[in-house]
Every structure is written in structure tokens, then in C-alpha cells.
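Most newcomers find our protein records easier to grasp once they have seen one. To make this concrete, we reproduce a full record directly below:

===
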Amino acid sequence: MGFDTASVTERIRANGGEPGWHLELISPTVVKSGSPVEILGIHPEGQLVFGDDGRYTLIAVRSNLPKLASGDRLSASADETEQIVQGSVAHFGTYVVDATTPTIEFHIRKGAFPNWDGETQARPFVIEGDRLTYITPGSFGYGASTAIWQRDKNR
């Protein structure tokens, strides 16, 4: 890549008041059965913010999550709950960038998938201009996939 860790870290952080990155695409994931599946649908939405203080926040959701018929999140039907749980990923914690590998290490403090709480996950990445691409781990019970994030400019 030709960058040192400090300069790459600076490039991924929200700077100049820019809010971070928005999700462009998560590639189809190949599940254990060998079939590709769109984990968050074909047009997922999300935001990823890397703070100057070493903290991050990530949320990604299906663009077509159902509105709850009851209007009360504590009274969602089993089907609504299943769609929302399967159609969203969220976690926050701290991060470290290693430009020599190059990887982003997410130290997950808490998330919507509690099995990840307390884990450290390294994700190989490439940053080209205003595009950040990394490989997600396959630890939801399906295979790895590629996440593509675009720098937020005027959102």
C-alpha cells in the first residue's frame, strides 16, 4: 500500500466534520450449503465511524426491514423480530489499524450479536480514494463476505 499505520489510520477516520463512511455493498456470502445469500439484501444501508479517540461505531441494516404492525418494539411478532434480527448488524468498541498487514482490528465491546461481545476481529482492508473495502469474518454461521464503504461527503 505504501502508507504507514499513522497515515492510513488518519485516512479512515472521520475528519473535517465528515461523519464517516456509508455502506455501498456487502457481497453475497456463500453459506455452508454452498449457496450464495444476500445477508443484508441487495441494497443494505449502514454507517461506520472511526473516531480520533480510537473508538468506532458500525451499523448495517437491510433497506426493507419491516415496520412493526403494533408500532411497539416490545410487542413485535415472531416474524417481525426474526426479520429484524437477521437483517441487521451493529457493534461498537475500539479499533486499531495495522498498515503493514493491512488490517483493521475491531475490539468489539458490545453488539447486536452478543456472541461477538469482547471479541477482537481483524479484517483485511484496502483503501482507495474515498472507498474502504474489507473482508468480514464468517462467524455468524455463514462464510466471509466483502463490505464496501464509501466516504460520506454531503450526507
Summary: The mean pLDDT is 85. The chain has one domain: 5-151.
